[in-house]
Protein: HCP-like protein
Organism: Hyaloscypha variabilis
Amino acid sequence: MSMPRSAKILIERASLLLGSRKFHGTPAIGARPAPKSPRVRAANPPTGAVRVKRAHDHEVSLPPIALLDAARKSGALAVEPHQALQFLREYQALAGKSNEGWEQRLCKEHGISPSTLALLAGILKRAQSAGQQALAKNAMLAASRMGEKAATFDIISEALRVGTLYEYRGPLERLGILAKKDNDPQAMTLLGKVLMAERRENEALDWFRRATRPPAGGLEFNGAGEALVSEGRILSQRNDKAGAKTAFEKAALGLDDASAYFYLAQLQEPGSPNQQVYLLKAASSGVVEAWHNLGALELEKLKHQEKTPTSLDDFGMAREWFQVAAAEGFGLSMLNMASIYKAVGQMDEALKWLEKAESTEGVATEAIALRKQWKASAS
């Protein structure tokens, strides 16, 4: 799923206007400090599944042939689709019924490398059925056991996302070996994230720094920007603004990291051209919070105009930024959309946005309070 066309148009318009407009105040209505981790609009984000043990038909659990064909044609899949399907059939038939080492032997018989097994697991994860998801999980765990570090990274990253690290002692041990013995900077970064999740910030900071600094680390690996951003977040929480700014600048200006631009924007003079430039950089990469903050900047400018907005058009780009962010589920933008519609007397639309906000995590309490406030003022 790509960025909404409306957001792209807004970014283009804002970029053209940037050199000719002045910036005045700080974001006020609905604006908040940077969240712990800005949400980048992802393509079809996976959802947490209810873990219920049940038997699945082997054929139904296989990946769609179209996905295997596409992977083969692209060069990603090293074996023919029919060969992969036969391997997965036998894998399911033997699972839980064979002795130790059966997965390695089966892979060898079919010419399936650990990296190919991880790829097949990744293809299965894109499918929808419970059986396919279960097979994907088992195959990814097997690839990790056979030493495929990409599989280990995938398992731990997913566990971090859904809060199930406690289920994966084996992959966690392998991650530790990759970080501590193999000096793998990607593993160091992921280990730092695990430690952050466990509220062990001092240890996490040490691993983030090891990942991006000699002798073991550097800035050439995939994930260096994330390590620097994580370092900056920890330093920001400790009120080390200078250290945080240095980390964010390395990630943003040196590695073009989208979330780094967002965090760097929070350290600029409120309403300054630099702040808007950095927010536009983040917005162009799909950071939804940046869309909201750009709307907040535009809203602040309206406060310095003599004319009080009386129509939706009077709210200009502020409304447009809030609308694209709200459409992506950002609660604060929903509240601002409700307030904008109320300000121009369109209460039906205002209440629709307020109702959406009331069912959105993080702003539900504020939405309920705002509804009570409106009701009290109307009586």
